[in-house]
Design goal:
It catalyses: ATP + protein L-histidine = ADP + protein N-phospho-L-histidine. This protein is α+β, with helices and mostly antiparallel strands. The chain has helices at residues 2-14, 17-72, 76-89, 117-122, 165-215, 230-272, 279-296, 373-448, 452-480, 483-488, 490-504, 523-544, 573-577, 586-597, 630-633; strands spanning 93-99, 105-108, 132-138, 141-151, 155-163, 301-308, 311-318, 330-332, 337-339, 345-355, 358-367, 508-514, 548-555, 559-566, 601-606, 612-619.
Length: 635
Amino acid sequence: MLKIKNRIAEYITSISIFVKIYGMFFAVIFLITALSIVVVRFSTSETLSYQLDERVKSIGSDVAARSADLMLTNNIYAMQKLVYDTVAHYKDIEYVFILDENGKVIVHTYGNDRPSMELIHINTVDSLVDNHLVMIETEKGFIRDVAVPIVKGLGGTVRVGLRSDFLDEALISVTSKIILTMVIVLALLIFIVLFVTRVIVYPIKQLVELTKKASRGDFTHRIFTYPKDEIGKLTQSFNKMLSDLEKADVEKEEYYNQIISRNRELKLLNSISANITSVIELREVLLQFVTNLVNELSLNSAVIEVKLVDSLETFYYSGSNCPLDEFELITDERQRVCTCKDGTKKHFNKFPLLVKEQKIGEVNICSSQELDPYSVKILTSIGNQLSVTIENIQLWLEVKQKEKIRLMLLEKIMTVQEEERKRIARELHDETSHSISSIILGLKVLQESSNEEVKQKEIDHLRELAHHTLEEVHELAWQLRPSILDKFGLKVAIERYVEEYSKKYPVDFDLIFNGIDTDRIRPDMETAIFRIIQEALTNILKYANAKSVSVIIMKNSHMISVIIEDDGIGFNVESVLNKDPSKYNLGIRGMQERVSILGGTLNIESETGEGTAVMVKLPLTDGGGELLDDQNYAS
């Protein structure tokens, strides 16, 4: 029993609220209508029954009054005519007959038949009362039978039978009208109920639909028209809740996209953040990276063009939906589209690769859809990281090159020092030592000689020999480091060096000085400029076969410039500088090193058969420098 009750309760509670509200309204309306019909029918039936009772009594009294004289005169014909006229006049009269004082039928309306004895005796009336009414049930329905005494106290009775079909017809008619009226009223009420129910239920229905959408994760819909009652307040609260959920969902989606974006970015960045120590490794990494780039970001194709060492290299990868062969990437930057091998148009994007604000390459992207902000952010970060990676490998190669140059310069310095020691030892042994020995021998001869003329001649010879020996010692000291540079400055030192140079080699010199006539510069800079000019003149002597040389030194408030030009045979600057450090370019590397330490720049311009120009610019402010790349010191 409890299970049945629970099932019934569960069934009722599972019914839609709309059905419940409609059911309650319709049940109430139907109940009111049914009760109204019953009450009205009952009331109408009572009223009509009373009216019929009074009517049949009135007809009976009328017939009794009109038949009193006729009965006294025993005018049977007139009484017969009276009863027929009464039946003819009143359509619902079933019968009329008159009884004498003995209860015998005098006249009747049965024609050839006569009233039955049962009918005659079913209703009797005392002569002293006005009438007596009884209800008789016949095959034709209920008949109201009234017995009215003709003359009170003398005998004789008028019997009138009135059928109830009029009442039934009246009740049916009234009931029909009531039902019709009730149907109209019911229809009107149903319309009103539907309207009222819609006013009440529609906001609830909207809320239900909205909750269904919200349960599916759609928080974008709202209810903008709602009442100001409790349902309206609930709707406002639900709208606010949806706004909060939508905001939270957007934030969650953004956070999720950020995580996905960050994961992709980290994965791609990780693929190029390895410890790369050679160009070969960098090529392998870039080839794998461009493949990962297309796969991770769902691109059609990607092409990376980057300058490695001295050549522009291309790394590309194409997806199956956009096959590309090398150099088949056709782009139109004005329309920002790229054309695949099959002729389809794709969205085109370009991301530059910059090192120290100089473009070293670019990443070209083809995609079916316009790149979203997250992909643009990823590609921008990747471009920056790729630039840093390439810069790092360049710096690494440069450091290795510098280290190699440093070791070779150190080796050259040690070799030069050793050769210089040998040369000095040789010159001291061959010339200075011989001269001193000659002086000692001459002094001994002078000591033993007694001839004044011979002594004077020997003294002159010894004086000349001592002077020559002193010049040899000065020459050795000058070659080690010109003391004149420390005493009198750069201008005098260069003039003296060029003078000595001109004595040994048949070259025309043109010296131009501007700004260093009276002002001295830092000793380290003077030494560097002197050694650079010394190295340049040495190279001209060894390789240039020049006829004339110009040395120009100009100084202003913040910079000093040095230019050494010759009209020699020239050389290919790039081919010499791009070679590994060797005896053929070690002098130039040393010049670069000196300029770099002082934070300056060294440019070399030369063409075969056109001579050579070495240009040095050194800042006069304090600070270091670095070894510049080829494009900064050669053109």
